[in-house]
Each structure stands twice: as C-alpha cells, then as structure tokens.
Amino acid sequence: MLGPGKADLLERIRDSGSISAAGRAMGMSYKRAWSLVEEMNATWRVPLVASARGGPGGGGAQLTEAGHEVLRLYRAVLDRAAAAAAPELAALERMLGPAGEDMSGGK
Fold first, then answer.
1. I need a surface site. Which of 34, 65, 78, 99 has the fewest CB within 10 A?
2. pTM, whole model, 2 decimals?
C-alpha cells in the first residue's frame, strides 16, 4: 500500500507541487510517477494526491489532507520501528568485519 518509494514521491509532490518534477527528482519517468499516484489514489479510501491539468495557468499537484496524514503516519511508524530495533541493529553492527574487507574470495 505504501513503501519508501511511494512515500518519497509523496514528499516530493508536497515540496514541488508537481508530479512530473517529483518524478524527475527521483529519476523516474512522468508516466511512472503518474502510475504510482493513480495506484495510491485507488488504494486508499480517499485520494492522497489532487492534481490539475496544465493550461494557461499551468497544472500542478498537491497532497490532500489524507495524503499528508498517511505520509505523517508512515514516517512515524518508521521512526518507532528504528527506535525499537536500535539495540539489535547496534549489536549487528558490532559483529561486522573490517570495512572494505573483500569476503568474495576474489570471485
């Protein structure tokens, strides 16, 4: 329903006011960005992104109230998960070998 890529796209739409600019900033085509927006808008009970076609006044896009809330909640979940996993992640980091060590055996 929502993952890091879609959340990043929502943030960039929020910040730029444009689906095409948000897609360009992420290195994706306009068509792909639009496809993701359409998918998100169809997945949730209410649309997350509202858009207006281009024309004399130009087009644009903005997050709806629901879009802002979904993005806020998603980021809050990630923050809580990172905090909850911090001890285990620190233990895993302590178990890592020296940085740059080639463990492939030259393969």
1. 99
2. 0.78
